[in-house]
Specification:
mainly beta; 6 helices; six-stranded antiparallel beta barrel
Amino acid sequence: MRNNYFDFNNWSRESMEPRKWEPGEKPGPYGEVPGEEKNPVGQEPRRPGPGRKAPAEKKRRRQGTEKTDGAAGFFFLLAMVLISVCVGLYFQGGLPSLPLQDSWWREDGWRGWDRYDYGIYEEIDWTEELKDTSIERAETGGELTLTLTPSEGAVLSPQEIYQQVGPSVVGVRTFAGEETYLGTGIILSSDGYIITNAHVIAGGKRADVVFSDNSKAKARLVGYDQGTDLAVLKIDRTDLPAATFGDSALLQVGEAAYAIGNPLGEELWGTMTDGIISAIDRSVDMDGQSMTLLQTTAALNSGNSGGALINAAGQVVGVTNMKMMSEWETIEGLGFAVPSALTKEVVDQIIATGSYLGRPALGIRVQDHFDANGEPDGAMVVNVKKGSGAEGRLFSGDIILRAGDRPVTCTQDLLEAREGLGAGEELGLQVWDGTLTGDGEKRILEISLPLVYSNSILDSEDSYEKRK
């Protein structure tokens, strides 16, 4: 979100009314429950005037006696308290929530926790800002890869974890015109590769990496990927304390989790919070795109973007990038991170090519299909990506029975058959298409499909055409 100047002369209560949250609207990184409008940060919250002393309670006369109606008085006072609270919230608008991007800084100092100035907000899509990123680019083609190390059951104390990982967490300052966004980064290698979030560097003209001793180094951008919200920076330094990365695929719900980052900017540098892994492979919609993330109860705030989510062995298992929060609903302990297994895949390609091309894919979407109306078990094609190698060869309703030398009884079998194959290689499929042969048998086709990088077909349309 970005600010427009607030016109105090034309302010009205209606302009501050929260818009009703419509189901299906999406939150952004460190963003609010959708549909809520915010009280301007930097503008002194509007509060009700000083309370007046209530007049002395009058006694109500009843026929034949004279006593205070205690119950009525109690409910009257309760009603007054509730009315006062509601009026206060109405004018105050609640506490300012945090924005799509991280805390920002201007020459004249802090202007709030987020990218609001004074007033009415214009929502800015960071994915659109990403297109305007002009940070100086670093050379690509490096052979460095991110290594995921088994934990081997090691359990460290929180103090040991902080001592081990803390030095590997840095600050990231992204300069975009007059604004500077403050986020976090993780040192990947001793020679200066840094991992952060793509939304931290979105729209940036220049970026610096800042260390705990307040020294800084100019960063160049190796590359980024919008779909996974990851970016890689490079600085010209050596002997840096690189983090150790663990395999997120080995995590279990309930395991201890720790987060280290710079919430609300650099004044709260290197803050560590703790919690558990509360969900794995959580599908989350962020600004209209679906991401599969780790969910944690470790406290995250604006500024933590690009920071480390850590397991009990002191290994980074995720890159923190999002939380859900609200002014109007009580939401606690809903933080998210990009899993290290996905981070490795993306970062390795970015270092090698400057971008993430995606996973090798067949260009189809499938679902499990079990015995129904005499049809065979397998992976049933739901739709086909136009422009992929599957277009015109596979159709909605086709059932894949075999992939390579592996029988396919469910979608997982098809995914496993694809593992180890790269883009450009072909995978042979045996497909039941439901049509009859001349002998009255249901036809089974042998089809060989090339794998392509999924990002190359992400924007193409889906075809739901059935085989004719």
